[in-house]
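note to self — DONT lose this again. spent like an hour looking for the file last time. sequence + predicted structure for the chain T wanted, 283 res
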Amino acid sequence: MTEQQHTVTAPAADIPPAPEADPAVPPVKKDRAVLRAVLRWTAAVAVFAAVGASTAYGITRMERTDVPGLATETDGRWAYPEITRPPLPSGSPAPFAEANAASLHHADLRELLLPAPEGATADKALSGRNGWLATKDFLAAYEPGEDRDTLAQLLTDHALRHIAARGWTMPDGTRTRIYLLRFGSGQVADVLQQDHLTNYDSPTYALRGAAQVHLDEDFPTDAEVVDVRHYAYAEAKPYGAEQVRQAYLVSGDVLGLVVQSREGGAEAVPFQQTVILQSQLLG
């Protein structure tokens, strides 16, 4: 991958722009190595290599029999394209480098979104304006009423800066939505998640059509990604026409939400795969 710098298009008018990287921060050579490394999904959905801010990083090929619960050739995984981390602006530290006390992701948030797998039909409603989703469109994912109004106020109180989103539908009807929300620092995102968004057994605010959601016991306990916390939930039976799975991700100043739904039941494997890959991009 080349080291060509990506141009960040200004966000929509209702969202204030992100601050520019501090030019006084010296380049971190090892972080450049991180940017050049390639993330490649070919088999693993549970255990990935642990990496730090100064370590070259990638997803290597694993035999299916090496991954707990995924020992067959027809386990339902999707074929994602080759995935790479976007480059950082010149002189900007990686989100978890020592020089980055606020744990900021300086890369273009829109390019941190997981690309759609092969065979997917894009959800154009999540494209937003210049790649930035309006807050009201993110809130539309939640049940209308008092809780949605409360969540809207929380996002304002915690100074939400940007939302990037991507969605798609697979041939079997599985619908995926990924939202990445950026705040002013990792501390702010932590407070919002820990104090307001998630509980051990269920999320605080219900998504539309998914009122009875509990801890996703199918999600591998050893699927943690370094520097990224995930909180996975699944709609319990009886769940009506479709089942919803969701996971909140917290990585520095970015709070993520991954949602998958499907009539008759959302399969566990592609959900796990999608959450872990998105976590890898953020970590």
